[in-house]
Amino acid sequence: MSDEEHHFESKADAGASKTYPQQAGTIRKNGYIVIKNRPCKVVEVSTSKTGKHGHAKCHFVAIDIFNGKKLEDIVPSSHNCDVPHVNRTDYQLIDISEDGFVSLLTENGNTKDDLRLPTDDVLLTQIKDGFGEGKDLVVTVMSAMGEEQICALKDIGPKN
Asked: Which of 36, 77, 148, 150 is the most buried (most CB within 10 A)?
């Protein structure tokens, strides 16, 4: 053992708390996985038989939960994969600003003003139309790996 002190400089966030390890062989369809540093929802899993060198391989086909891109990965089933911590939270929509940001009411009564309108045209139209008609709208925000995006909309009736 040496008496030297080691100093490590942190150049970036390690992102350790954003994901957790899970054995590839235990990840199922509709679960989540990190492929190419993107949080994805698994749409297809196929496992190949063990080969000459002993590892069964899992072939994952997954869709990025934020941009909808299809990604694939092949991992030995005994190896660990990163699985993102995915949270879904409902907020009441208060306002839509002209620069495309939304103002949301959190459960503790504060406002959350750092989210943009979704890029999905159908959802975007539903939100704008519903808001324009004066309806009470609740949006579902999905967050994973430091990213957040509006992914769903609920109409809870007209404003009083």
From this structure: 150
